[in-house]
Structures are given as structure tokens and as C-alpha cells.
Write a structure and sequence with these properties.
By secondary structure, the chain is an all-alpha fold. Helix content is 80%, strand content 0%.
């Protein structure tokens, strides 16, 4: 990599780590950057997933105060996340690379829609909590409906992962009655589990660009702390606009290659 490419990937890692901690769509920053520098799509996705693991850990640690008394919840939902992430990673490796380049533009567009409508979903969840609605319609604090939703979201996360955090926070916000910051902390742990199990699988089953991994790892670790400490001060409209523009650039890149 040239000095310019190193700086760009490092800064993309910082942005992804920050965004993942706050919202959960950082892949829409790093993945297009790797594509722009000529990294093949599947290799870019695999390398990005591995590189973002330290950032996910950093973000989870930054929210450690909000994780108190959530051990049981994280055990139940974390098991679903682990199994789903492993299945998603397996599907990525087993499907032809051509399938990835066909499927991922659709997934990115879906992720961009989720990023755009996230404020509306957040408002709906706030109204639900104020009205006293809570719990999982599937039964219990973390009932079958939520566990199934986390599993399916984690399959998606293991396969590609863009905006999996948006999906997770929406699911928990609608099906659990709890403080949003506590749910966001739980989301960071679940995303960490998905990224980590997928990364472990990729280590033995796919080609990896280790230079990209290292740069994204360093950047996302810094970004995870930034997101946990000061990221909430970023103007949400500007943040979402950036994500959408970068995501559209990624779709364009995939469609023209």
C-alpha cells in the first residue's frame, strides 16, 4: 500500500469503530475503501470483519458500566449470536465469490435503508417504552421471538455485517423494556461475538489481506473508544448522510466490476 492508502484505510477504521459503537454500520465505511484500493470483494469483507474485532471489543469495554446486571441476557442472546455468526461465515466461504458480488449490493442497500429509518424506529421504541409496553411477545424477558431475531441477524452479520448493529438495537428496543444505553451496550457485545466467531472461522477458511486487517484493527480500536466517549456528540444527520454516500459508492463499485 502507498502512504495515501495506508492513511485512508486507517482513518476508515477509526470511522468504522466510532460508528459501530454508536449505531452499528461501520462496515459501510471500511468495505468500500478496501474495494476502492483493488481488494477483491470477498477478501475485503473477510479482512474487514477480522480487523473490526478489536474495535468491537473496544466499544464494548467503553460501555462496561451499562453492561452491569446483563450477564443472563448476554448469555442467552450471545449463544444465538455465536451460532448465527458461525453459520453466516460458513455460507460466505462456501458460496462462490460471484454470488457475494451479486448479493452484497442488495444487502448494502437494505443496510442503507435501515440507517435512514433508524431515527423513526428509535422514536417508535421510545413511545413504546413510555406507554409501558415491554417484554418479548415470544414470552419472557428474552423469549423465542427475540432469540430467533438475534440468530437471523447474526447469520447476516457473519455473512456481511453492514448495519447488523442497527438491526440488533431495533429488535431489542421493540421487544425489551430497558434503557436505550443498556441495550446499546448489549448490542455492542452481540456484534463483538458475531465478528469474533466469523473472524475465527475465516482464519482457517479464506484468503486474508493482513495489511488491511492491521490498519483497520488499529483504527477501529481507537474509534471504539471515541464512539463510547464522545461519539454521541456527532450530529446524527451528518453521520447518516456520510454512511449513505459511502454505501452508495460501494454499491456502484460492486456493480461496475
Amino acid at each position: 500500500m502507498s502512504a495515501w492508502e495506508v492513511a485512508a484505510v486507517l482513518l476508515a477504521g477509526v470511522g468504522a469503530g466510532t460508528i459501530n459503537t454508536i449505531v452499528g454500520s461501520g462496515t459501510l465505511i471500511t468495505f468500500p475503501v478496501l474495494l476502492a484500493f483493488g481488494v477483491p470483494a470477498v477478501t475485503a469483507n473477510v479482512s474487514n470483519t477480522i480487523g473490526l474485532v478489536p474495535g468491537s471489543l473496544s466499544g464494548a469495554l467503553g460501555y462496561r458500566r451499562e453492561l452491569k446486571a446483563q450477564g443472563g441476557r448476554l448469555l442467552r442472546l450471545g449463544t444465538a449470536a455465536l451460532l448465527g455468526g458461525l453459520l453466516g461465515a460458513y455460507v460466505l466461504v462456501k458460496l462462490p465469490s460471484r454470488a457475494f458480488t451479486v448479493i452484497v449490493p442488495v444487502l448494502i442497500l437494505l443496510a442503507l435503508v435501515l440507517v435512514v429509518i433508524q431515527p423513526r424506529v428509535a422514536r417508535a421504541m421510545a413511545v413504546r417504552r413510555q406507554g409501558g409496553a415491554g417484554g418479548d411477545a415470544g414470552g419472557g424477558a428474552e423469549g423465542p421471538l427475540l432469540i430467533a431475531g438475534v440468530f437471523l441477524t447474526s447469520v447476516y452479520g457473519g455473512y456481511f455485517g453492514a448495519a447488523q448493529g442497527v438491526l440488533l438495537i431495533a429488535l431489542m428496543g421493540m421487544l425489551l423494556a430497558d434503557d436505550m444505553q443498556r441495550l446499546n451496550a448489549a448490542k455492542n457485545v452481540l456484534a463483538l461475538i458475531v465478528d469474533a466467531v466469523a473472524a475465527c472461522f475465516f482464519l482457517f477458511a479464506s484468503h486474508i489481506d493482513w495489511a488491511a486487517v492491521g490498519l483497520i484493527a488499529v483504527g477501529s480500536t481507537l474509534g471504539g473508544q471515541l464512539g463510547a466517549r464522545v461519539g454521541r456528540r456527532l450530529p446524527p444527520p451528518a453521520l447518516r448522510a456520510t454512511i449513505v454516500l459511502v454505501g452508495l459508492a460501494a454499491v456502484t463499485r460492486l456493480l461496475v466490476t
